[in-house]
Amino acid sequence: MSGPDLSRRRLIGVGGAGLGGLLLEGCDRLSRAPTFQHVIGRTSTLTERSQRVLLGGQPLAREYHAQDLSPVFKANGTITPSTDAYRRLLDGGFADYRLVVEGLVRRPLSLSLAQLQAMPARTQITRHDCVEGWSAIGGWTGVQLGRVLALAGPLPQARAVVFRCADALGGTDDDRGLYYESIDFFDAYHPQTLLAWAMNGKPLTVPHGAPLRLRVERQLGYKQAKYVMRIQLVERLDGIAGGKGGFWEDRGYAWYAGI
Amino acid sequence: MTTETFPDTAAPAPPSKRVREVMYRHTVVVRVTHWINVVVISLLLMSGLQIFNAHPMLYWGSYGADHDPAWLETVARNGPHGLRGVLHIGGLTIPTTGVLGASPMGGRLVVRGFPAWATLPSWQDLATGRRWHFFLAWIFVANGFAYLAVGLINGHFRRDLAPRAEEMTPRRLIGSILDHLRLEHPTGEAAKRYNILQKLAYIGVVFGVLPGVVLTGLTMSPGFDAFAPWLLDLFGGRQSARSIHFICANLIVLFVIVHVVEVLLAGVVNEIGSMITGRYVVPQARRR
Fold first, then answer.
1. Model ipTM?
2. Looking at chain A, which terminus has fewer C-beta neighbours within 10 angstroms, N or C?
3. What is the value of pTM for the model shown?
4. What CA–CA distance (Å, rounded) separates B217 from B248?
5. Where are the CATH 3.90.420.10 domain residues in chain A?
6. For A79-127, what is each residue's pLDDT tens digit?
7. CA of B229, closest CA in chain A: separation in Å?
8. Domain A61-251 is of which CATH architecture?
9. Alpha-carbon span B52 to B130, nearest angstrom
């Protein structure tokens, strides 16, 4: 006997549903098998391609009204980044903050918060859907990512936009531990894709990603990178951190988070 | 359905002259899609419970998270006797230690919505649960469309599932309910057709619950919502859709329980055999 888990399995077998027990055991084994992980992972490509076809006309995610706002917008993931670099920026009221735009661009940028706020802003009240299942409605104000990218001038070989963040959700202060995310140009140029600096009409708070967070409204919460420090335009994602295009993607979640 | 009647010549002549009537009851498409559903729906249910466990609370409306009122939640509390699992549903508090809220894993109680034996994978792993769920959902939808297309084209729904006007009278309905309560199963000619409650149950599942579970599933997708925002209005918001998705899953479980009990009562070998070979031995009335 090795614990109640096994005895329960045995009970199911004795109960005449041995097949069910075998199925369970088999599925657990399949879940661990890399080849099968790969096969079921392929359906995420099918889901992504199908949604890209359906979203070809670039429809907007639903926008809500002020009376629809969640009374409390749950802050998830990192609540307070603990890295020294972030601490210093926070202590200085983000006066020294610079958003760096680099990589496959004609004109690398370094933009202060004031410069970002001086750019044309968009405000949208949208629903934030966490991969866990909960939702919260919040209002976001910021500059459309497309405008910032246009300033930098992406090179033709650029395929993805990578967001490097200040929070070490993985516990270490390096590529492996720091939060990052990535999207492609299909979403990067969507009118609701923002670099948001305000939430519900007030400056972004630390739990919600101050001073700057990403909003990609047609995807799940883990895409909405907080504490964005650097934007990198790249051709491939496999050279970055775990190579899957994001902190949670490197931990098994799908890169396309439209479902 | 075609009926062929022939005397049972394989066995020595029985004392009374019995006729063994065999009918072709289930087409190959019905049989294949049925057994695919058995596997796929079981695994969808289990991977669905894995996903539920990531946030074991259900809400009504557009939004819903920790600070919002949940109409259903599983909770684990640390009490004087260790971890205790509780289900809150509506205004009720039901102790569920061992099953909901807190259940055994690796020899001790852990905080968990649904227990390890009910989830896919058995350990807590939302990413893998989601991969399984969406992989299976594609198979389920393809399988469902094949079943619906063939059923519409070959007249199966119209011929075998659509209730006839004379079946829908209160007297017939009550009669059928009483038959079910008395666990009486039709014989002879009556056994060749689905009874009215059976028809209504199948119609409800095939055209109500199963499409409902797919549509509410799609409503939870922020990408699909941008394409079809009317789904949000249809179900009353994303969190309502999530709740209805869960309720549909429970209705499927309820249907399966009744379905399996009826199969056991009606004759498990004949019933399961007919869903494998298509051939169903028509039960004859017993002489009293």
1. 0.91
2. N
3. 0.92
4. 10
5. 61-251
6. 999 999 999 999 999 999 999 999 999 999 999 999 999 999 999 999 9
7. 7
8. Alpha-Beta Complex (3.90)
9. 10
